[in-house]
Write a structure and sequence with these properties.
Largest sheet: 5 strands, antiparallel
Structural class: alpha+beta
Helix content: 55-70%
Number of strands: 19
Strand content: 5-15%
Shape: elongated
Radius of gyration: 59 Å
Length: 884
């Protein structure tokens, strides 16, 4: 007799209680009604969601079509925009005004500035002209920023006054007549830019330092003329304002704020503008910005010239003007505020050092320029002394001969005058006067030569002797009686001597001039020859430094000229180079080639290192990706969660180290996504395999053995979405063997019990069962195996033998089922069910897999499943169903 265990007693009690609760099918009907209610709720929620998504899609499509239609209508044509008139500033502008008012009362710390401006050799000073822009992708962008900036620069407490009391109330702009209309124009431009591009530039801003020596009216005319000529003639919108220096700052800081846009805009009325659909290009590229700075410098020079000021400005950099100076760094508002609070700002300290260094550089350049000027002056003086020496020697020779001839002629004339006594007094007086005048002329000429040739000792001696002779002649003439008259022959000879002296003087002057011209021509010829020689040398050097291939060869560490690859014309030029210059040029070319080769090797090494670093980084990346993939493959908890028909990655189930590794790779990596998808497929296949094994174990389905491996029928595999290959793995086969062994154990129990108690067999509608005298466990086993045809036939044969009074023994049929001595056959009960066995659906007793249904559970499928059966898994082939 088979004893009943404690589990069997409790199972029988549970069965009796369930039978009482299920009286007349009341509880079952209630459960079915509840399930139908839940299913209907699911359908209503799904319908509402679908209707809401469809409505949102329709609204979005209508909005997109409307926007496309408006843009297509506006494209290629100017936009006419009218903005609402407002006289109240925005909150941002008001807050900025209050902020500036608060900052105006704070004390400013001194900043090291230039004592004198840096002036180049042409007397020009660099202008300060900074250009910035703001757009939708700017760091501090917010809606209405261009309009608020226009109101900020046009505030009355900062504008420069024209006159003593009056403020020029008309702003400098072509966008409106007052500040609020100009701000409305900027808001209109912002709206248009927002409709065209998401990263559009809305406003360009200029800060321009103006000459402080000009009057306020002259500065206003300067800024207005520049803006109109630069932006207005191109129909670009602009607004400008001139600000006064800060009360506690540098009183020379007169500066202008200019704002402009590259989208042409024309004011057509009060708060109305016509805006072009396309922007103007070429004004803010590097060449355009340089041209704009040059125009600003030209306007400043024109204004200074008109005002009679000597200052001149330039847009060129220090290097372009030949000044070895550094450029100071820009100090922003935040750094300036920190400096005013007393903090140390590196940029301001560095600017102070740069200013001092630049002043020293300028002073050094000035001293060097003065030294060069003194050197040139010294060279000119030495040249002048050489020329004066030559002139002194020439004058000494010429003057000595002329003076001796004049003295001899004068003595002869005086002697003849004393010997001859003339009676005509007027003639004597005239001769005396003429001689006196000639002596005075000689004395004056000697004095001029003496003052011109003070440095020549020989000239001084000659001049003194000549002066003494002339003075003696004059004294003799004065002491001679007036009645003495020279003869006509003497007069003729005297005139001839005077004309000869004048001719010699003129000839000496002409000779001196000719000599000077010849010397100058020789110097010019020498300079031309030297210039040609230098040009030839420079051209030859250039050919040596730039020719390809190199015009030399190396033999045993020595350089040799090699012009075989050079054209004949270049070869002739190089061969004409002096030996020393040729050697220097070759050595320099060799040095440059070595430097270029070193740079090339350095660049190649850097490129190799960069490639190696990239490869190392890629290898490290691959190692990290492989580790992350291994973590996802081998993680014990599943690194994802299911939500409706969507699968989301869930790293919270991983350890801190594993989570850091996976997050370092990121879900966007393709290998990681493929690994996660493979893990999801593997887990899904394992879940469906476990559900299939549970169904086989619960429903006692046949599993024939072929070649030592258990086989599952095709209907069961298709019901759970599996293939025959999925059940051929070792773990699944072990589980199938365990289930088969369990089934065979149950059959053995039924066989043993029926052989011992054949009188308890009772005929029921579905087949055979045990009467109430039999244990509930055996009764449930017999009812569970009623679908097997051979077991029913065997039980029928045993019951027939019991009715006929045949002894209870193992019949051949039972022996066929259980095997000899109650041992079960390895192949199971049967390969197929009996023809009259009731058809059973593979999923009619399968329990739901996963969490219990809720309002988020999808509605029943079209094939009739009510949500409790096996639902198809999400489409894991679609990457869109997986998110972080």
């Amino acid at each position: 007799m088979l004893l009943e265990t404690e589990e069997g007693i409790w199972a029988r009690a549970d069965a009796q209680v369930f039978r009482l609760l299920m009286d007349n099918g009341r509880t079952e009907r209630r459960m079915q009604a509840a399930e139908r209610t839940v299913a209907a709720a699911f359908r209503r929620v799904a319908a509402l969601r679908k209707r809401r998504r469809a409505g949102a899609s329709r609204e979005q499509a209508v909005a997109d079509r409307r926007a496309d239609r408006e843009l297509s209508l506006a494209w290629g044509r100017p936009l006419r925009i009218r903005m609402a008139r407002t006289d109240r500033p925005t909150s941002a502008a008001a807050s900025s005004s209050r902020k500036m008012a608060m900052l105006a009362g704070t004390s400013k710390r001194a900043i090291r500035t230039y004592q004198v401006p840096i002036v180049d050799e042409a007397g020009r000073v660099a202008l300060f002209f900074r250009i910035r822009y703001v757009g939708f992708k700017s760091k501090m962008w917010r809606a209405g920023l261009p309009a608020d900036h226009a109101l900020y620069i046009l505030r009355e407490d900062a504008l420069e006054r024209i006159g003593d009391d009056a403020i020029d109330s008309v702003p400098m702009s072509n966008m409106g007549e007052d500040a609020h209309e100009i701000a409305a124009g900027w808001r209109a431009l912002e709206t248009v830019e927002e409709g065209y591009r998401a990263n559009a530039i809305v406003q360009h801003r200029i800060i321009w330092n103006l000459p402080h020596d000009l009057t306020a009216a002259e500065r206003r005319a300067l800024v207005e003329d520049f803006c109109e000529r630069t932006f207005g003639r191109l129909d670009l919108p602009w607004v400008a304002a001139i600000h006064m220096p800060d009360a506690k700052g540098d009183q020379r800081n007169h500066h202008a704020h200019v704002c402009f846009s590259l989208r042409p805009c024309e004011r057509t009325g009060d708060h109305e503008w016509k805006i072009a659909p396309e922007k103007l290009n070429g004004l803010t590229d590097p060449d355009g910005l340089k041209l704009m700075r040059a125009l600003a410098a030209a306007h400043m020079n024109r204004a200074c010239r008109a005002a009679g000021r000597p200052e001149r400005f330039t847009h060129q950099k220090y290097k372009e003007r030949g000044i070895d100076a550094q450029r100071q760094a820009h100090v922003g508002a935040a750094a300036m505020a920190a400096h005013e609070r007393g903090e140390h700002v590196h940029a301001i300290a560095r600017n102070a050092v740069i200013a001092e260094s630049n002043e020293l550089v300028v002073e050094k350049a000035q001293v060097a320029r003065e030294v060069r000027m003194h050197a040139r002056l010294t060279a000119l003086l030495e040249r002048q002394m050489q020329v004066d020496g030559l002139r002194c020697r020439l004058a000494t020779v010429m003057t000595g001969a002329s003076a001796s001839a004049i003295a001899t002629s004068a003595r002869d004339a005086i002697a003849r005058a004393r010997q001859g006594m003339a009676a005509v007094r007027p003639v004597a007086s005239q001769v005396a006067k003429t001689t006196r005048d000639q002596g005075r002329a000689i004395l004056q000429r000697v004095q001029r030569r003496r003052s011109f040739h003070k440095h020549s000792r020989a000239m001084q001696n000659t001049t003194i002797a000549l002066a003494r002779t002339a003075r003696a002649i004059a004294e003799q003439i004065n002491a001679s009686p007036a009645s003495i008259m020279p003869s006509p022959v003497a007069l003729t000879r005297f005139r001839r001597i005077a004309s000869i002296a004048r001719g010699q003087t003129i000839s000496a002057a002409l000779h001196q001039k000719l000599t000077a011209q010849r010397a100058e021509a020789a110097a010019i010829h020498q300079r031309l020859v030297e210039h040609d020689r230098r040009n030839a040398i420079e051209q030859a050097r250039r050919l040596i430094l730039t020719s390809e291939p190199a015009p030399y060869r190396l033999e045993h560490g020595r350089l040799f000229l090699d012009l075989s690859a050079m054209p004949p014309a270049g070869r002739q030029i190089v061969e004409g180079l002096p030996h020393d210059d040729l050697g220097a040029a070759l050595r320099r070319r060799h040095r440059l080639d070595r430097e270029r080769e070193a740079e090339r090797r350095k660049a190649a090494n850097a490129a190799t290192k960069r490639v190696e670093a990239e490869r190392a980084a890629e290898a490290a990346r691959r190692t990290l990706v492989e580790e992350a993939c291994r973590i996802l493959r081998d993680a014990e908890p599943r690194p994802y969660r299911r939500d409706d028909k969507r699968i989301e990655a869930d790293w919270s189930v991983l350890s801190e180290r594993e989570r850091g590794t996976v997050m370092a790779v990121g879900i966007g990596d393709d290998d990681l996504r493929r690994t996660l998808i493979a893990r999801i497929r593997r887990d899904d296949r394992a879940d469906r395999t476990a559900a299939m094994l549970e169904a086989i174990e619960r429903e006692r389905r046949p599993m024939p053995s072929i070649d030592g491996r258990r086989q599952v029928d095709v209907r069961t595999l298709s019901a759970f979405g599996l293939r025959a290959e999925d059940v051929q793995s070792g773990p699944v086969q072990h589980q199938l063997e365990d289930i088969a062994a369990q089934h065979l154990g149950e059959i053995e129990m039924i066989a043993v019990y029926v052989e011992a108690h054949p009188n308890q067999l009772v005929r029921v509608k579905a087949g055979w069962s045990l009467d109430k005298a039999g244990p509930d466990v055996m009764r449930e086993l017999v009812e569970a195996w009623q679908h097997d045809a051979r077991l029913r036939s065997v039980l029928g044969a045993i019951a027939e033998q019991e009715r006929n009074g045949i002894a209870n023994s193992a019949t051949p049929a039972m022996t066929q089922i259980t095997g000899p001595k109650g041992a079960a056959q390895p192949g199971g009960l049967s390969d197929t069910s009996a023809p009259n066995a009731p058809a059973r659906s593979p999923t009619d007793r399968v329990q739901p897999i996963g969490p219990s249904p809720s309002l988020e559970t999808p509605p029943p499928d079209a094939d009739g499943q009510d949500g409790r059966g096996t639902c198809p898994p999400p489409n894991i082939n679609d990457p869109g169903t997986i998110s972080r």
